[in-house]
Design brief:
7 helices, alpha/beta, single chain, 6-stranded mixed sheet, about 45% helix
């Protein structure tokens, strides 16, 4: 089984809404929030979420390097094969967090992907630099396909496979 780490903001991790946007970085050795939906799709790809890392998106925006170092250190310590940042959908602050963290992980040699909608401002900022799996704006039509695609791409990256053709189909 390939080891995947999921990175979420405070809302997606179930840690409250905007009053917790300054939540310091933390994690749990479990699949939180959207990780529950991703779990069966990852299992089909012989991968599993070994931990969910999270922090408030405002906290992240004010302490990017500190959070990135902690999350990269955790991923290396637990020998993660790949990281999924998101799904950030259309949420701008979470999109910025997911996009920049994906970039950090890749720079440190850890395969990583993000997931967000075209409405997210971070999609335009990062789409030339990182793989961003396409998602609908909120729930609804295409959401299950997005989760399947996130699992497939993360697992293929974890296995060290060439994902160029796959990314052309499912990413921005």
């Amino acid at each position: 089984m390939k080891k995947i780490i999921l990175v979420l903001n405070h809302v997606q991790a179930g840690m409250g809404s905007d009053e917790h946007a300054n939540l310091a970085p933390s994690g749990k050795k479990a699949a939180l929030g959207p990780g529950q939906t991703l779990t069966p799709y990852l299992k089909e790809q012989e991968a599993e979420i070994i931990a969910t890392l999270y922090c408030g998106d405002h906290y992240y925006l004010e302490h990017q390097e500190e959070v990135a170092k902690k999350f990269i250190g955790f991923a290396k310590k637990f020998q993660a094969d790949a990281v999924i940042c998101g799904p950030a959908m259309h949420y701008a602050n979470f999109g910025e967090m997911a996009g920049s963290l994906t970039k950090y992980f890749i720079q440190y040699g850890i395969p990583a992907i993000a997931a967000m909608s075209i409405e997210n401002p971070a999609t335009q900022v990062y789409q030339q630099e990182i793989p961003i799996v396409k998602m609908p704006k909120k729930g609804g039509i295409g959401l299950n396909d997005s989760f399947k695609n996130m699992a497939l791409l993360a697992a293929e990256k974890a296995k060290g496979n060439d994902t160029k053709a796959l990314e052309e189909r499912i990413c921005f």
